């Protein structure tokens, strides 16, 4: 190590090495499953992005990018500034590298931001068939077929079909609630898109425009958009009026300055004549001094007027910048709101698909006859690397992975689809 290295540069180097070490330790703290695990739809990720700025010798926290995100049905991850990124089939380390490289390329940064990506919650697994409580469940590491059945309450009990009927009623009720929420989120997304496009009206998406509940939702979202736009318009008008007043003030100050300059010229001519008379002894020196004092005062006023004009011009620049900031902040808020709505809509859409499956399963599965012993079969439906589903005959000790669908049936039951 060069011992003659400048102390400040040495300190910055140590800070940089320490920061890189901290970020490495944070990333390596993930479990082995999260490191080697291939991400998929509905996985929730916790992302933290920091940047070591070599010139300033300090860290920059990308708080606008950091946060918790859910991989959508398309397998993409949507982040501010990074945009849509393919996440399905990739590891957390690959996602972290993509985020850092994209931010560096997009903003032309000399130092690449470092991203820490961890699985906050694995995508759920699903269980259906002749069990007590079919449905969607949170995934936990080391999950097996037997554990999954235990989580779902075990095999279906009772032979009167009451449980199946209750499951059907519950699934239909949940489906109705989720359908209403999906409509609301779709209309909210349409309103945000209209605002971002600068439109004054909200158009209902074509696929839901004919539904009875949609016009009322459109009216509510239109009222929200009108209120937001009115607020922004009033603030921009106030800034424009302020600019107008300042511009008028600059004109008035300029006119006063010109008047003062003419008065100074007249006073100087007068001083020239008085000075000649004073040299001949016809005028006392006090009058000369008085005239010179008046000229100095008028020149001071001219300087004050020019200073006031500069202040007014600075205020105009501030008003213009504030107007730009208002528009940018509004667009940024809308982008964040849209991202949140899209995430919620993706989650609701997935839940709706699950509820449809539960309705079909609850309506088509017959209970086993009382007192009969039936063999039980397990089938895991799992997607391969190409996104195609395949059926795997499973045993009780076989591992269940995130996103798997476990189908349980007693031999002799109708085939579970």
UniProtKB/TrEMBL annotation:
For this UniProt record, the keywords arranged alphabetically read as follows:
Coiled coil, Signal
Which residues does the UniProt record annotate as the domain AprE-like long alpha-helical hairpin? 174-352
UniProt keyword annotation of Signal present: yes
Q: Which residues form a coiled coil?
A: 229-256, 295-329
Q: Which residues form the Soluble ligand binding domain?
A: 125-160
The signal peptide here is 1-34
Tell me where on the tree of life, at the top rank, the source sits: Bacteria
- Short name of any one Pfam family annotated for the protein: SLBB
Q: Report the GO molecular function annotations.
A: polysaccharide transmembrane transporter activity
Key word Coiled coil present in the record?
Answer: yes
Polysaccharide export protein N-terminal domain location is 34-119
Can you tell me where the transmembrane regions are?
none
Name of this protein: Exopolysaccharide production protein ExoF
